[in-house]
Amino acid sequence: MRLSPWSALLLALPLPTAHALDLMEAWQAAREHDPRMAMAQSSLEAGRTQREQARALWRPSVSVGGGAGVRSLESNTHGAYFAAPGMAPSEHVTFKTSIDNGTATQWNVTARQPLIHGERSAQSEQLTLGADAAEVEWLGARQELMLQVVESYFQLVVAERRQALLRRQLEAVERALAEAKDRYAAGDLPILDTHEATARARTLQAQLVAAESEREVALAALADATGLEPERLDPLPPSASVLSPEPLEPLAHWQEVALAANPLLRQAQAKVEIAHKEVEKYRAAADATVDLVAQAGRDYVSGDGDYGSSSVEQTQHVIGVQVNIPLYTGGLRSAKRQEALKLEDRARAELEWIRQQVGQQVRAAWLALQTAHARVTALEEAVTASEARRDATRLGHEVGDRTTLDLLNAENDLDAARLALLQARTEVLQNRLKLQALAGRLDEERLAAVDAALQR
């Protein structure tokens, strides 16, 4: 069976269409639609409020209080000085006031400014660290979603190419089967050729069913992530232009960068620092606190008592420094501090574990990138060799030295080599972006560079 030059060219090259979905469009749609990004954005905005909370801990607080009720009062004032018009002044006078079940009202306004407060200092630093951790968490979620969009995008690319190749192979085998049946009926071919073509057709039918299912799964995954209609999802396959040589720094360099900037590692480090501040908070709870306090208030009581009807009014204005020294909390503070110490130990152990995991992931991604580059080079040579074999088999078929099935086998092997090359190219891109994400460097600028290369 002969392929036209145009068919061969279309199979060899990527086929961008006028409405093809590029990688940046897929990412931008996912960024706006995917619920994981909405969750990360909400967490970021919630975390940012912790900076304001930290500042608020050191601002003055103002409170107003008041009340009314029934009150009894017995008041004795001794040694008072008394003077009234028309009367001689008197010293050492005693005043008595008695009110039984009188009416009482009171109000006060208090302003308090913390001056020295170790517990608040630790809590303020905790909140600031929490805000920093929220930003790092958002960065990590953004990078993770980028990688997942890239993976879904290229899974659909490969699935569509596999489906197209299998469909084309099946059509060619079915034509060969029809030809074999006709020639068998004419006595030109043995029945064996018909059986071989039938077996090949049934095998390809089964593979095509699996490929169609795989494409549907990949299509649904990308549609769910982006919120786009499936008919709009026509991704661009990577070509050789995407794989322009880039210097790959040594593994030690990537590990050093990742240990300093990896989002998961930075989150774990923030957890350690927050846990340490929790320990400091309970340690400082035993220290004295100093506040600047200003207060104004009024108490008023009126009613009948042992000496007839009377009323008492007290108005006060106070400003000064207030010192509080905790003496005993029933053991609660000590128990809380011990709990905080153990949680700090746990956070440090988790940090060390994540550090090991990140190191292993960087090594795996770095080696995978090197391997993928080598696979691309080898598969490019395999495609060239398969093309030469296909051409030779086609020539043999034309002169009668090779059967139609021989030619189909050669063309199928070429298709398989091209599909493997496409998969290897997507692996290069994904491993390159994964390595950048592990180092905390994956952003829209780098994704846009890959997208621009896809469209060349």
From TrEMBL:
Listed NCBIfam families: type_I_sec_TolC
Signal sequence annotation: 1-20
GO cellular component, one term: cell outer membrane
Presence of the UniProt keyword Signal in the record: yes
Broad class of where this protein is predominantly found: membrane
Keywords: Cell outer membrane, Coiled coil, Membrane, Signal, Transmembrane, Transmembrane beta strand, Transport
Similarity annotation: Belongs to the outer membrane factor (OMF) (TC 1.B.17) family.
Single GO term (MF): porin activity
Localization terms from the record: Cell outer membrane
Organism: Tepidiphilus thermophilus
InterPro entries according to UniProt: OMP_efflux, T1SS_OMP_TolC, TolC-like
Name of the featured protein: Type I secretion outer membrane protein, TolC family
A Pfam family hit: OEP
Matches recorded under PANTHER family: OUTER MEMBRANE PROTEIN TOLC
Keyword Signal: yes
Coiled coil: 156-221
